[in-house]
Amino acid sequence: MQFLIRAMARLSLRKLHGIGLVLGWLGYLFSASYRRRLDEHARLAGLDTAQRRQAVGSAGRMVAELPWLWLRPPQPPLGPMAQWQGAELIDAALASGQGLLLLTPHLGCFEVAAQAYVERYGARTQLTVMYRPARQPWLREIIEASRRRPGLATVPASLAGIRHMIRALRRGESVGLLPDQVPPEGMGVWAPFLGRPAYTMTLAHRLVQQTGALMLFIWAERLPRGQGYLMRVSPLTEPMPEQSPDDVDGSAWQAACAASVNREMERLIRQCPGQYLWGYHRFKQPRSAQSDAPGAAA
Q1: For the segment 131-163, what is each residue's pLDDT rounded down to a tens digit?
Q2: Residue 290: what pLDDT?
Q3: What percent of the chain has pLDDT over 70?
């Protein structure tokens, strides 16, 4: 498997995306559970047939481009393969001296977002991202090596990792999160997403509350014919919910914050629905909570 990954890493991005199109359809046709989940989520979002087909191919392209991204050396940089839209929002946030929290949904090529960010802004700020190590030792080694880049720090998905991110934001640095990743039990709340309850992290708004950091969304639209990626930066379109004095334990505030993040993600997803990872098990139960959780029917 390592040989295959290293061999694929030497191919052009255009060839990898062609291979990915085939892989996407093979996975869709031969995995009944994956096909049902993707189709169900696509129907829930109101995707038409063309958008659903694009989503199948995009999922395969995401898999096929990973070897190229993992084994790509820091030099030469992505350069023109990473175009930017909304970079002035990041420039203004960094100029303020406050910490910057970047939220990247499972939309487009989320793996390239950190690489493109540190190549452009690594000289001005360090980016800290949270990750869960791969189970296979050989794959873990490849992924960890790919993330050892100038300006990029990684922390485990644990309490120690959260503390590290808080310190980074208080120093005025940048932190990246996947806001639609299902968190462990106790680190999220059930909030509407595409009209269904989804267990949603509360970490993003708690980081902002504790550190005074600014928050932006960033995602990488996959360009056609292997031309690269368009890095899209977007501000929040609604203010962060405020905690009421009557909300002593903060539960209502956390639910409102989670719902707000989900609405922002829905807005971004509808800009490019064919590149969202609809096969992701977004409505699953959180780990260690297979029963007795609110919204169990989801």
Answers
A1: 877 788 878 888 888 878 899 999 988 899 999
A2: 43
A3: 97
> Model confidence at 73, in pLDDT bands (50, 70, 90)?
confident
Pairwise CA distance, residues 94 & 196, whole Å: 36
3-state SS, residue 45: helix
Domain membership of residue 72 (yes or no) is no
Q: How many domains does the chain have?
A: 1
The bridge status of strand 127-131 relative to strand 174-177 is parallel
**In-domain check, residue 158:** yes
> 219: buried, middle or exposed (CB in 10 Å: 19+, 13-18, 0-12)?
buried
Torsion angle (degrees, nearest 10) of CA 289, 291, 297, 298: 10
* Choice between 244 and 74, residue whose per-residue pLDDT is larger: 244
Residue 67 domain-assigned?
A: no
* Measured CA distances, 81 to 65, 95, 153, 216, 217 (Å): 13, 26, 23, 22, 20
pLDDT (tens digit per residue) in 250-260: 999 999 999 99
β partners of residue 285: none
- Per-residue pLDDT at 293 exceeds 50: no
> What number of other Cβ atoms are within 10 A of residue 69's Cβ?
18
- The boundaries of the domain holding residue 123 are 78-275
Q: Which amino acid is at 245?
A: P
Q: Measured between alpha carbons, how far is 84 from 233 in angstroms, rounded to an integer? A: 8
Give the residue among 61, 59, 83 at the shortest CA–CA distance from 277: 59
Q: What angle do CA 145, 134, 227 make, to 5 degrees?
A: 60
Q: Is there a domain that residue 151 lies in?
A: yes
Q: pLDDT averaged over the chain?
A: 92
- For residue 82, the surrounding DSSP H or E stretch is strand 82-85
Angle at 70 between CA 67 and CA 72, to 5 degrees: 95
